[in-house]
Structure formats: C-alpha cells, structure tokens
Amino acid sequence: MTDINALKTELTSEIEGAGDLQTLDEVRVAVLGKKGRITALMKTLGSMDPEERKTTGAALNALKDEIADLIKSQERALKKQDMDQRLSTEGEDITLSARQAPHGKIHPISQTMEEMVGIFGSMGFTVAEGPDIEDDFHNFTALNFSPGHPAREMQDTFFLPEDDGEEGEYAKKLLRTHTSSVQIRHMESGEPPYKIVCFGRTYRSDYDMTHTPMFHQMEGLFIDKDVNMGHLKGCLTDFVRAYFKLDDLPVRFRPSFFPFVEPGAEVDIGYTKKPDGGIKLGKAPDGQEQQWMEVLGAGMVHPNVLKNCGVDPDEYQGFAFGMGIERLTMLKYGIPDLRTFFECDTRWLEHYGFDPLDRPNTTTR
Ligand code: PHE
Questions:
Q1: Which residue from 145, 153, 155, 180 has its CB within 8 A of the most atoms of ligand 1, so it is best to mutate?
Q2: Which neighbouring-strand residues pair with 199?
C-alpha cells in the first residue's frame, strides 16, 4: 500500500510537472500505456494470492482512475494555456489597409441639378414636378401658343397616339418639349403666390453634337403681387454667377420671343476666346473683345398664361425662366459632346462623374 501511495505521489508530480502536451503524453504512455508502470503492476496481480490480489487490485484500479483523471485535467489546463498563449500573440492585424470596394459615380446631370436646387433653394424656391407625357393644352395652348401658331413649329415635337378617354387638346398626347408645362400644372393646382423650380426630361426630334432627342431642362416660376423685371434680372444674374462661381461674370439680357412671356429675353454670359480655340468665361481683359453666349430664356409671364390658369393678371404678375441643364453642365465642366451624356459608357462616367462621398457645397456663396 505504501508503495502505491508513494507511486501516486511520484506520478502526480510528474503529471503536474509536464509543461506541454507532448511531455504529458509521454508521461501517460509511461504510466498507462501497454508497457506503462501501472499496467506492469496490474500484470503482477495474477501471481498474488486471492486476498492480496483483492486489496491490491482495488487499490491499483483506483490509482489508475485517479491518474487518468489527473492526466485529463492537466491536458485541459495545458490546452487552455496553449490557447491563451496563441490569443495573446497571434491576433489579426487590423492595421492592414482594407481593399477598396468599387463605388459608382454621380452623373454630371445629377450633380448640376443638385447644385441648382442648392442655389434656387437658398433664394426661397421649392421644387415642383410634372409628367413627361403631356397633352397639347399643357405643353402649348395654355402657354399661349395659338392653334397653327408658327411658334409650335419651333419645337420638333414627338406626338403620341390620341387618347380616346379624353377630349380636344387633352386627348392629343405628346412628349413635353419643355418644362414650361410644369408652370401650368403648378398654377392650376393651387393659389398664388408661386415660387418654384422644376427639373425634368424634355424631348425634341433632333440629333447632332449639341442636340439629343431627350435632354433636361430646368424651369423657374415666380408669381406674386409685385414681382417685376428687376427681380428677374437680379435673380438670374445671381444664379449664373453662383453656378459658375464667378462673382463678376458679365450677364446680358437680350430681347427675345417666347409666346408665354412678354417681354421675353434671352440671357447671355460673357466669355473670351483662348488662343488654343477654347473659351474662358468672364469679363474680357482690356484690349480683348467680349464674347457672349446664350444660356437661358426668360421673361415676364404673359397675362394670357395667367388667365389660362385662373390667375388674375390685374392682381398678379411675375417671371419665368428655362434652361438646358446639359448645356450648363458642359460649359462648367468642359464636356465637349452632348451625345456622350447618354451613351452609358462607364469609362466616361468614371472620368466626368462625381464622387458620391464628395457632394457639392450647394449653398450660393
Ligand atoms: N421653354 C423655353 C424653351 O424651352 C424656355 C423658357 C422658359 C423661356 C421660361 C422663357 C421662360 O425654349
């Protein structure tokens, strides 16, 4: 018995002294393996007399179980120690820079519209909307284009099949040729004062370097009791200067005709020609000739248009303006060919587009 107790003390210290799993396994084999020390002792039981065998056998079995348990728990302790060691030394290197996820670009048209919303928003305009498929009334008649008026020919209209469900001018459907129809719908839908801008697709049958059958316009309308031509000039001068970020951009108002305004004007901005054939917006330096280019149409809303929308022209008046969004985008960002806007070439967008995470500062100044 004392032998067994001594053996137990010895084995226990061997097991607890095993500093790693491999040493522990060697101890296990040396004790419990086929040729292990306890196994060898078990083998001696056969030569003992029955009484001795009984007590020694029970003691050896108990020792064997205890030692096996001890090895198990030492094994667990070593594994945990091993894991703790790895966790403290092996962690992921989170300082490694992340792989860049590809992200899309904002189309220059969207960018420009957002800039325009910012500028007109700061002047108190809100955004209105209207349908792309219009009827003859909203696109022409209400805007003071009389039937057969040559002005209707100014715009190469895409007509759609007549709508059986409606009558007269409302049955005649077309793709809107300008966003001026939104002025009409807006005035029909509520009471003055009106102060809106609207953005949208417009359609004319035309295709070359500066014309596409679909393009975008922006329209503005400001009607109140005392809105005058001075307000029109101030508003549009401020707009083009804020949009092009040129405080002294020369602006010129030139008389022009649109059936829905009286008087009507075209707005020009000043530029100079560069020796390389390009252009530079701004005031011409001394000795150089000031050049002008048209950027938008405007005017005081014609009394007939107000009447057509149920607004009393003796009480209310105001101005409207309209412009091509692509044209202003091309000028500001130096994009030479209008057609490329709609070719859906991702390389073009990669080059001319805007980073979605880098939105424009949309305030005026
Ligand atoms: N609707 C005109 C066009 O498309 C532009 C315009 C709008 C002119 C409002 C005057 C006033 O050419």
A1: 180
A2: 218
Q: Which residues are 268's β-sheet partners? A: 252, 294
359 three-class SS: coil
12 φ, ψ (degrees, to nearest 5): -60, -45
- Euclidean distance between CA atoms 301 and 312, whole angstroms: 12
pLDDT digits (tens, 9 = 90+) for 10-69: 999 999 999 999 999 999 999 999 998 999 888 888 888 888 888 888 988 999 999 999
Q: How far apart, in whole angstroms, are the C-alpha atoms of residue 106 and residue 118?
A: 16
CA–CA dist 252, 231 (Å, integer): 15
Model pTM greater than 0.85? no
DSSP, res 354 = B
Return the biggest CA–CA distance within the chain. 133
DSSP assignment, residue 95? T
Residue 160's region, left for phi above 0, alpha for psi from -120 to 50, else beta, is beta
CB–CB of 268/278 below 8 Å? no
Locate all alpha helices (DSSP H) within the chain, ordered by sequence: 2-17, 21-32, 37-44, 50-90, 108-122, 136-139, 168-171, 180-188, 229-244, 303-308, 325-333, 346-352
pLDDT category, 346, cuts 50, 70, 90?
very high
Could you tell me which residues come within 8 angstroms of residue 110 by beta carbon, excluding any fewer than 6 positions away?
none
| CA separation for the pair 91, 89 (Å, rounded) | 6
Over its C-alpha atoms, the chain yields an Rg (Å, rounded) of 44
Report angle CA 102, 111, 128 to the nearest 5 degrees: 130
For ligand 1, atom 8: residue with the closest CA: 297
The separation between CA 221 and the C-alpha centre of its own chain, rounded to angstroms, equals: 29
Chain position carrying tokens 């075209």 = 266
Digit-coded pLDDT (tens) for 34-46: 998 999 888 888 8
Residues with CB under 6 A from ligand 1: 178, 180, 219, 258, 261, 297-299, 320-322
- DSSP letter at 288? S
